[in-house]
From TrEMBL:
Spans annotated as Disordered: 1-28
Keywords: Hydrolase, Metal-binding, Metalloprotease, Protease
Superkingdom of this protein's organism: Eukaryota
Provenance organism: Phrynosoma platyrhinos (Desert horned lizard)
InterPro entries: Peptidase_M76_ATP23
PANTHER family linked to this entry: MITOCHONDRIAL INNER MEMBRANE PROTEASE, MITOCHONDRIAL INNER MEMBRANE PROTEASE ATP23 HOMOLOG
Protein name: Mitochondrial inner membrane protease ATP23
Enzyme nomenclature, EC number: 3.4.24.-
Signal peptide: none
Keyword Metal-binding in record: yes
Ranges of biased composition (kind: Acidic residues): 14-23
Protein's UniProt keywords contain Hydrolase: yes
Family: Belongs to the peptidase M76 family.
Length: 232
């Protein structure tokens, strides 16, 4: 899966690396060298599920040009992170050393595409406003299916809806802590402060898609509506 092209600098427009602040790059060592390789991407795109296709279309319709080969970068990452969104280059990083299944890949792509969508549609201040980050993490966990498998397994133990909310909240907190040096309490507070509105913001799906066919329907709804544009 991994074929290294170490040192091949991808055209990010910037010749030099961004200011050496810790933007979570600690987990993505290849980011410092200008990104990894993107050769997996054409394979990946063919298998993209409806969630990811919908998001790619939504981005295009919002005026965010999506160049598939430039928007995704396959890299080896540290720890057990499986993906990231680099807002300085609008690139999605897929951790090829930590993703081993197509279904996992789809989930990571969808999760990160939601960050990319938020980045594109709103002026997200990722680094100075933790509530902005919290909101996007809530949406990514809620809409990507990160919590759906677990929900399936535990739906008979807990109320499905309640469990889904708890899962989304926990994952959002964990995602923030992975990329920011904050106390757990601060991350939890940021998530709780914006939870209500961000959990109920399902753009561009219109609702939380709970299955592949559901995502397909949401995708069709999306293609047929112009209501969307007025909400931007
Ligand atoms: Zn995330």
């Amino acid at each position: 899966m991994a074929s290294e092209q170490a040192g091949s600098r991808r055209g990010s427009g910037a010749e030099e690396e961004e200011e050496e602040e810790d933007f979570g790059y600690g987990l993505f060592p290849e980011r410092r060298r200008g990104g990894g390789n993107g050769e997996l991407m054409f394979v990946l795109i063919f298998f993209l599920d409806p969630y990811a296709k919908l998001l790619l279309d939504a981005m295009k319709n919002s005026g965010c040009t999506v160049f598939r080969d430039r928007h995704f970068s396959c890299e080896d990452c540290d720890g057990c992170v499986s993906g990231g969104f680099d807002s300085s280059t609008s690139q999605i990083v897929l951790c090829q050393n930590n993703i081993h299944y197509q279904s996992h890949m789809n989930r990571v792509v969808t999760h990160e595409l939601i960050h990319a969508f938020d980045h594109c549609r709103a002026h997200v201040d990722w680094f100075n406003n933790v509530k902005h980050l919290a909101c996007s993490e809530i949406r990514a966990a809620n809409l990507s299916g990160d919590c759906s498998l677990l929900s399936e397994m535990t739906r008979f133990k807990f109320g499905l809806k309640q469990h889904h909310q708890t899962c989304v909240r926990d994952r959002a907190v964990r995602s923030i802590l992975a990329v920011r040096k904050l106390s757990k309490e601060m991350a939890e507070k940021a998530v709780d402060d914006v939870f209500e509105s961000c959990f109920n913001d399902h753009e561009p799906f219109g609702r939380v898609p709970h299955s592949k066919s559901d995502a397909k329907h949401a995708y069709r709804d999306f293609q047929n509506r112009d209501r969307y544009y007025r909400n931007l």
